[in-house]
Specification:
By secondary structure, the protein is of the alpha+beta class. Helices cover 50% and strands 21% of the residues. It is globular, with a radius of gyration of 20 Å.
Length: 309
Amino acid sequence: MDYYNKVIESVHVRFLKGNNFKIEKPVTVMNYVESENTLILLHHGTLKMGEDQELVNESEVLFIPKGQKTQLTFGSGTKKNELDMEQFGDTKRKYLQSLSFKEIKTTEEDCISLIQFESKVFDVVNFFNSLDIPPFIIRFNDRIATLVEDIIKEIEVNSVGKERSLKAQTEVLVIELLRHILKNRLFTEELSTNSTYFKDPRLIDLFNFIKANIGGDLSNKVLAKVANVSEDYVGQYFKMLTGINPQDYIEYQRMEAAVELLRTSKKSIRDIGKEVGYKDTAYFCRRFKMMYGVPAGKMRRRESLINSQ
């Protein structure tokens, strides 16, 4: 128990955004993926996930960890479009329409609430993503469903302490999510491997150095000096503790930084690529699309569209 308390204490949680949607038309997204941890609460209607199209019951919550792909079906009916994530992102308003929480409570139409949050170990490692936890349905947990509703209601008010309240409620939500995983003994192997983040301070030094120098030289030669190990050994050392090799981890962090810049700045794609360590803009664009399924420019337009709703 002390170990898991230490895990929870080390996870930094940040509320990102939330919204409600009415499902206008049924659609299946073959490779649905989110750039942030996402909880989807089904109020009314039909929601299915995975190749087996496992049914999410009303008042249940679907958890999609950041970067994890799944097949997702919104709504029911014999006639529904099948799209990839890029097509869905371009035409989202055709299938999902924003509405208020009050409207959800007065309608029987298919509708969902969606919450997104960030969770990082030592403010560096994306917690759920690093565990490689797949999307899963949270069943028989009214507490989590209620917390999602409370956060959605808080978003729609304009009261003193709103931001503080959202932060606090999101932290409780993540704790309840972890409790649910532990209580139901889900992904126990994945959770146990995460202990490596808390046992070797040299690894934390590497995480912090990578974060602080994301656009600079992050070769194994440089990393070896930071960790005080040999250049030949640093890749093996990093993979032994994290399960991935350092250059893959670095690319992931660079892409994460690029996504943040796409959301928060008006810098060109070229400048963003350079800022996160890519001198070749074409190569940066190819790698970005390979990782997220959409071009960098389209992700920026999609985020702008979502945030304007």
